[in-house]
Specification:
By secondary structure, the protein is mainly alpha-helical. It contains five helices and no strands. The protein has two domains: 1-43; 47-125.
């Protein structure tokens, strides 16, 4: 192979490597942006962060809504509801689409907040506030 062909081939490979790097950097940047947005929504207890892997007790605790209210809004009237079942598992069990179940939970939380505006803390207490030693369990550090 001549020197000129080798230089052209190396130049093409270098451009290909640079293009691949630029595409990967852009994808990483967008992933970080989505993560930060999701984190901000979660910190504000926005109902759009509800996912099919969540359970009713977890949602009730995180969004400050009674479990019984959520079960009732989903039309689950069992005397012993499936506490550790995810929304996905509940959708399968009750033969409903997962997205519909998630939407029903989101709507129930928003309705509960409208009916009980003083019970909802917006935004929820941030974990960083709990790390101050003077405020931990009422103890004073000397």
């Amino acid at each position: 192979m001549s020197l000129r062909v080798k230089l052209i081939l190396i130049g093409i490979l270098l451009l290909l490597a640079l293009a691949t790097t630029a595409i990967a950097a852009n994808a990483t940047y967008q992933a970080v942006q989505r993560f930060q947005q999701q984190k901000a929504l979660a910190a504000a207890a926005d109902v759009r962060t509800i996912r099919p892997w969540m359970t009713i007790p977890y949602i009730a605790r995180y969004y400050h809504v009674p479990e019984a209210y959520l079960y009732h809004s989903l039309h689950i009237y069992d005397t012993h509801p499936p506490r550790h079942a995810t929304l996905h598992a509940l959708a399968i069990r009750f033969n409903r689409p997962v997205d519909e179940l998630v939407h029903q939970v989101q709507t129930a939380i928003l309705n509960y907040r409208k009916q009980h505006p003083t019970k909802f803390r917006y935004p929820p207490r941030i974990a960083a506030q709990d790390t101050d030693p003077a405020h931990t369990s009422g103890r004073m550090w000397l």
